[in-house]
Amino acid sequence: MAITLSQLNQATLADATHLLAGLYEHSPWIPEVALQQRPFTSLAQLKHAMVGVLNAAGVEPQLALIRAHPELAGKAMVDKSLTAESSNEQSKAGLTHCTPQEFETIQQLNRDYNARFGFPFILAVRGPRGTGLSKAEIIATFERRLHGHPDFERQECVRNIHRIAEIRLNDLFGYTPELGNTVWDWQETLAQHTDPSYAELGQLTVTYLTDAHRACAQRISMDMRHAGCDTVHIDAVGNVVGCYKNDSASSPSDGGYRPVSHKTLLTGSHYDTVRNGGKYDGRLGIYVPLACVQQLAAAGKRLPFDIEIVAFAEEEGQRYKATFLGSGALTGHFNPAWLDQVDADGISMRAAMQHAGLCVDDIPSIKRNADDYQGFVEVHIEQGPVLNELDIPLGIVTSINAGVRYQCEVVGMASHAGTTPMDRRRDAAAAVAELMLFVERRAAADGDSVGTVGMLQVPNGSINVVPGRCLFSLDLRAPNNAQRDKLADDVLTELAAICTRRGVHHSVTENMRASAAPSAPEWQARWEKAVAALGVPLHHMPSGAGHDAMKLHEILPQAMLFVRGLNSGISHNPLESTTNDDMQLAIDAFAHLLADMAQSPAD
């Protein structure tokens, strides 16, 4: 029989500890210490309390907990000495039915991992959806993590232990994150569509207006209709727009009526991907609000404002150099010159749009009138390691960082690698290497700036030739415009000094500059109130990545909510992931935001 929070809160400490004894392998002390923080108002609050207890305990207790766990498909499974919880989990992942080859592979990985780290490999084998990872996924994760740093691996084991405990706690309370599962499944279905050459490799790539992109638009349209959106259409640039209409009048508790707020809440994110990308970047921000619409429609409930969800057609700038094309069209910043750009196959954007049945003459008409909207909110997977390392599910975004990008070239003199003395070289690549180290030091000195040389090329380079030419990119970001500009000035000044000292020449072309987009205080406060209502801690953070909210910021107040990612928060990568529980928390936070707005619309 499932237990309840009320039962747990009212039990004696000994009885409550007994109820939670199986959460952490042979370690009832963790829930016992956490239970001293009662009463708990939510499972999420209880989960985080236990996370805090183990984090505060230090390294040795963490190692002891890790070593209390059995190996995957190990001796304890063979001689049937696993705890009931571990036996259930390994069985769900199919580890009790390994082929001889799979069993030997896992056994060898266990031996190698133990020899390297001195503790067993821990993985939440029921996975981010809670239904169990495949044996192939388990082995691939095992092999990847075998090469990790010992400190990181200890922390990753602890994070997986918390995920194991989270799933066990859900089972104890008979709790299922239903809408989290729905959002998970919607994204899995959408990820079946990928551009042809990548489909053969099992990779997810959806670039603007390809067959896979148009299939995604149709799938999202169908999901919007089934969820309860009253109107759904694909606009002139391929954005999918779903609207859940307001009530004709809302009834306050005093029985009277108040005027409807005719200002719409705008939300959404993008559905295109980078090449060989992840399933949740952008798409999570489409389906979280859609789950809230589904919940409202199922209850027959309307709000005193429209909810407009836009699945933006293009944000990544992969097929054409037109980043934020989808959201930019809504702000009136679609650049007609983009239509003449051609992709790698020589197909112009104009031709691609015509082939997709889009009318370029209608693009100006989709510009939004800011007076019709309350604001814009966006949910997004974090795309970074911070929430994952802190073991916090949600983050309140304070600002989207300012950024600037350059394409650069350094020109020296190509010469024979064997006959040119070191003090007579004009090595273009060495100059860039020196600059890269400066960028690293200078950005780190700010504490919250970042600098990256992501592209580096020595044209016609040869193993026995001193590089005479080096092409490279510079990507510089900071929380505000002034800090970004100071960083850029310092980096470009140092580049000039390095080149002068080394007797080489350089050129710099700026190809992108984006201003910082600070969250509107009143909208950030709405997210804070929503997250606090869930019983999880508030964590404020800037966004280092650009998002559609940056474009909408130009015409509307905006604020974002981040959702923790797994695998060190990696994004733009097939390992990008999050859990059904964290998705559920994001949905619950969005629902709280909607309820708060229904009481006090931002008119």
Can you offer a commentary on this structure?
The chain is 42% helix and 15% strand. Strands 1, 2, 3, 4, 5, 6, 14, 15 and 16 form a nine-stranded mixed sheet that branches. Strands 7, 9, 10, 12 and 13 form a five-stranded antiparallel sheet that branches. It is of the alpha+beta class. It is globular, with a radius of gyration of 27 Å.
Which features characterize this protein?
603 residues, alpha+beta, five-stranded antiparallel beta sheet, 16 strands
Q: How far apart lie the N and C ends?
A: 48 Å
Q: Outline, from the CA principal axes?
A: globular
Give the biggest beta sheet. Answer: 9 strands, mixed
Strand tally, please? 16
Given as residue ranges, the uncertain stretches (5+ residues, pLDDT < 50) are 249-260
Helix content: 40-55%
**DSSP helix count?**
22
- Tell me the fraction of residues in β-strands, as a range: 5-15%
Mean pLDDT: 94
Radius of gyration: 27 Å
Structural class: alpha+beta
Summarize the structure in short.
The chain has 603 residues and is of the alpha+beta class. The protein contains 22 helices and 16 strands.
Helix-strand blueprint:
Layout: H1 5-10, H2 13-19, H3 29-34, H4 43-57, H5 59-67, H6 75-78, H7 84-92, H8 100-117, H9 135-145, H10 150-173, H11 178-190, H12 196-199, H13 211-227, E1 231-234, E2 240-244, E3 264-270, H14 284-298, E4 307-312, H15 325-330, H16 349-355, E5 373-381, H17 386-390, E6 394-400, E7 402-411, E8 415-416, H18 428-446, E9 450-452, E10 456-457, E11 465-466, E12 469-478, H19 481-502, E13 505-514, E14 517-518, H20 521-533, E15 540-543, H21 548-552, E16 558-563, H22 580-599
Parallel strand pairs: 3-4, 3-5, 5-16, 6-15
Antiparallel strand pairs: 1-2, 2-4, 6-14, 6-16, 7-12, 7-13, 8-11, 9-12, 10-12
Helix pairs in contact: 4-10, 5-10, 8-9, 11-14, 11-22, 13-14, 14-22, 18-19, 20-22
